[in-house]
Every structure is written in C-alpha cells, then in structure tokens.
Amino acid sequence: SGKMAEMKLLTCVVPCYNSAAYMERTIASLLPGGEEMDVLIVNDGSTDDTGTIADRLAAEHPSVVRVHHQENGGHGSAVNYGMAHAEGLYFKVVDSDDWLDGAALGQLMALLRTVPAMETPIDLIICNYVYEHTLDNTEKYMRFRKVIPIGKPFAWDELGHLNAGQFVTMHAAVYRTDVLRRSGVHLPKHTFYVDNVFVYVPLPTVRTLYYLDADLYR
To answer: What is the pTM of this model?
Structure first.
C-alpha cells in the first residue's frame, strides 16, 4: 500500500515573483503538513534568486516540494497553473509573503484525513485568517464564529448573514480541487486582486461547507 501513503490531501500553490527575501519562511510553514502536503512553487518569471531558492527547496524536500518556472504571467496565471497541476484533494493559495500557522495546519490536515470516508465530501473549508501589520506589530483577526456553524459540514441554508467587513477571501478558502476544476474558474493574467474571481466563481457549485475555527492563514 505504498501508493496510499502518497495520496496528497492538500496542494498549496505558492506564486513567487522576486520573492527571494521572504519565500523560505512561507515554504517552511507548509512543510509540517508532511508527505500528505503538495507544495507547488510557481516561479513567475522572477529576476532575482527566487528560482534558485525554489529549486534548492525542491531538492531538499523532493516528495513534498515541486517547482514550475514560467514567463511572467502575474498572480492569476500562477494560480491557474496550480489549479491545473494540483495533486492534492484540496487546494489553497499561499502568497509568498504570507505563511500558515503550524497548529492550525495540523487541525486542517486532521480534518482532511477524514474526508475520503465521507458520503458527501466537503466542497469548501473556511478558516480564519490574520492580518499581521508588521510595521506596528498589530494583528487583525478575521473570524466567522457568529455566522457559520462550527465544526460540522453544513449547507448554504444554514449560513447566517456575513457582517460588513467579514469577507470570505482567498486567504480563508480551502477548496476541493475537483470543485475548482469543474467550475471552470480561470483567472486573468497580469491583473491584481483576482482573489474575488477565485473565491466567488466556484461558489454556485459548492454544496457542502465546513468552518474550521482555526487561525490558519497569516
């Protein structure tokens, strides 16, 4: 059953453009996901040492980290590549200047391990995210406790009203990879703020959601 051990539960695509100064911390935060994690670094035409660092990380962690070098196509094009080539059952975008919290990642992986046995798989997992304002060391937590049932699969009709300023962004979303592919979502190249396209285009195809009340994304 060597093959079973290789099943990837989560693909984290990390779009990198001239990210040499900070990308190693990002990748280091994903490695605790272990062999069930698929880390796909997309080097988007960087002109600094990003490509070299990416290749070294892939060589150091050959069963977890892989690299795709491409001509510069922008954040959206890097995410598109990730969606097309993800090996994980679930899919998350992690920007190269952000990172995931280790304890929360452990909770997410534990949840994902239970999915294959579910009669109805979860299409979208929502986690909390935290804005770290590095200049003044303040943090702003985006949580959804009041509006979403916690810790159990739920459907749309059980969702309360999100308050103003309570956004389900790319940072909060962990999509089932098949849902993204079936939705046909495709992000425009060379465009900023494509996050909303990524989050909202697949939503109509989502049947089952799950809120993991963990501060995953920093």
So the answer is: 0.91
- DSSP H helices in the chain: 2-5, 23-30, 50-60, 74-85, 102-114, 177-183, 195-200
Length of the chain: 218
Q: What's the pLDDT at 187?
A: 83
Query: pLDDT by residue (tens digit) across 95-138?
Result: 999 999 999 999 999 999 999 999 999 999 999 999 887 778 88
- Indicate the angle between helix axes 102-114 and 23-30, nearest 10 degrees: 40
For residue 175, what are the contacts with CB-CB under 8 A and spacing of at least 6?
90, 91, 92, 123, 124, 125, 202
- The interaxial angle of helices 50-60 and 23-30, nearest 10 deg, is 20
| CB neighbour class for 170 (10 Å; exposed up to 12, middle 13-18, buried from 19) | buried
